[in-house]
Amino acid sequence: MDAIFWGPGWSSPEDQVLFARLSKALEGENWVLDGNYSRTLAIKWDRVQAVIWLDFNLTRTLYQAVTRAIPRLFSQEELWPGTGNRESLKMLLSKDSIVLWTIKTHRRNRIKNQGYMEKEDFLQ
């Protein structure tokens, strides 16, 4: 989902652009998709056959975010081809930091995802 969402210079698309990108990515017969972006549920779940939710605790999720970000900070690998987006110390320490985002949203996302899983008509 991040590769579909993020544009050059960490730009975020308007919904119609995001929805078009996502629809195109899901045109194939078979696909696997991971990530959040709740506003895309109707598109993602239109043809879904199974959902696997890895419900990790905050400690593990935060550890994974940090252990991915730090090496990429030093390697300066481009995160998604053609975007030029790379980890930076400025980004890692900013209000837009993946670490801060993980801390701020973990509980809310867990509650939201648990609610989806408990719905009787979840995949119908």
Please supply descriptive tags for the structure shown above.
124 residues; mainly alpha
Description:
There is one protein chain. By secondary structure, the protein is an all-alpha fold. The protein has helices spanning 2-5, 15-25, 41-44, 58-75, 89-92, 98-118. Helix 4 (58-75) packs across helix 6 (98-118). It is globular.
Q: How many DSSP E strands?
A: 0
Provide the helix percentage: 40-55%
Describe the main β-sheet briefly.
none
Number of helices: 6
Q: Radius of gyration, rounded?
A: 16 Å
Low-confidence stretches: none
Shape: globular
- Listing every helix as H and every strand as E from the N terminus to the C terminus, the arrangement reads HHHHHH
In whole angstroms, how far apart are the ends?
23 Å
Percent of residues in beta strands: under 5%
Mean pLDDT: 91
User: Structural class, from helix and strand content?
Assistant: mainly alpha
In short:
The protein has 124 residues and is mainly α. It has helices at residues 2-5, 15-25, 41-44, 58-75, 89-92, 98-118. 50% of the residues lie in helices and 0% in strands.
List the helices and strands and how they pair.
Blueprint: H1 2-5, H2 15-25, H3 41-44, H4 58-75, H5 89-92, H6 98-118
Helix pairs in contact: 4-6
